[in-house]
Amino acid sequence: MTEKVLSLDNVVKRFGGFAAVDDLSFSVERGEILGFLGPNGAGKTTTLRMILDIIPPTSGAISVLGSSSAIPVRHRIGYLPEERGLYRKMRAADTIAYFAKLRGVPGRAARKKANDLLERFGLKDFARSKNEALSKGMAQKVQLLSTIAHEPELLILDEPFSGLDPLNQATLEDLIRELKREGRTIIFSTHVMQHAERLCDRFLIIAKGKKRFDGDIKEARASFPPRLIIRTTDNIDRLRHAPGVKRITPIDGAAGAETDYEIGLAPGADPQVVLKAAFEAGIRLSRFEHASATLHDIFVALAGDKGAAELEAPSEEAA
Questions:
Q1: 159-203 pLDDT, tens digit each
Q2: How far apart are CA 160 and CA 230, in angstroms?
Q3: Concatenated DSSP letters for the chain?
Q4: CA 29 vs CA 4, 41, 153, 196: distances in Å
Q5: CA distance 93 to 7
Q6: What pLDDT score does 253 carry?
Q7: Alpha-carbon span 30 to 181, nearest angstrom
Q8: d(CA 59, CA 20)
Q9: Residues 6+ apart with CB under 8 A from 8
Q10: What is the mean pLDDT of the chain?
């Protein structure tokens, strides 16, 4: 029998006449990694703040680790906010130990945990450096380590990969997988779909405060047809009437007189039917490529053009 670590039931948050979160319901099971996705302004941060009891919902119910409020169980929660901030004059090791002690870790154990984490993440030589002397990537890692030092059961990470170079992004991915193996529950928001697709058991996509999708990648792909690209010099009008074809759109990419087309298929349509129709119509193809919808494709379809504009490539910024 599964155990719900978090549940939201018909949660609404209004600011005046504006519904930032509108009738949102979902749950997260112990040991699960949930990707919380949506364009800016979708209501993600508002939802996380309600989960943490920083702001109250206008209506609906929230349960966190069996409690109706996160406050009594806050020592069992780790939260990395999108707005980063460290005490500039405090040393890196002291920062991590300080936040661990705030959450109930004894002083000596907190200091040992801080030094162990710094060594593991390649910051041993910077343990006594002041936070203001650290690079953006290093400071990001110190704040992340401060979030996990007390070994929380539930981790809520808002854009955790921001500011990390590709190597440290991979290190963070490994850490998240390790935390999952230890049975911890993780919710993280991101605009980098590759991280979410590699790490998450489930995805929750919201837009304009409403839930658009809640499920795993297999369920998401089953709802979206494969992407089909063909290339030809011939007229393809006859393909418009092939079974399962909804639209045909010319795209850039072909050389010379050839043209690439993206063919939109109905859910459940077989791309091989299009190939057979092209053969029967005498349409010569120099390219026939189909692939399952990516999380990027699904996000754009559900979140709309605003979501597409805000998707980011993985950060190349050095730590």
A1: 888 777 888 788 888 888 988 998 999 999 887 788 898 999 999
A2: 38
A3: ---EEEEEEEEEEEETTEEEEEEEEEEEETT-EEEEE--TTSSHHHHHHHHTTSS--SEEEEEETTBSSSGGGGGGEEEE-SS----TTSBHHHHHHHHHHHTT--HHHHHHHHHHHHHHTT-GGGTTSBGGGS-HHHHHHHHHHHHHTT--SEEEEESTTTT--HHHHHHHHHHHHHHHHTT-EEEEE-S-HHHHHHH-SEEEEEETTEEEEEE-HHHHHHTSPPEEEEEESS--GGGGGSTTEEEEEEES---TT-EEEEEEE-TT--HHHHHHHHHHTT---SEEEEEPPPHHHHHHHHHHHHHHHH--PPP----
A4: 4, 26, 12, 17
A5: 35
A6: 59
A7: 11
A8: 12
A9: 24, 25, 26, 27, 47, 51, 60, 61, 62
A10: 88
User: What values do phi and psi take at 46, rounded to 5?
Assistant: -60, -40
Q: Which residues pair with 18 in a beta bridge?
A: 15
- Per-residue confidence at 304, pLDDT binned at 50, 70, 90? low
Residue 309: how many other CB atoms lie within 10 Å: 11
Cβ(262)–Cβ(228) below 8 Å: yes
The pairing of strands 77-80 and 18-29 is unpaired
On the CB side of 316, CA atoms within 13 Å amount to 1
CB 121 within 8 A of CB 145: yes
* 121 phi and psi angles, rounded to 5 deg: -100, 20
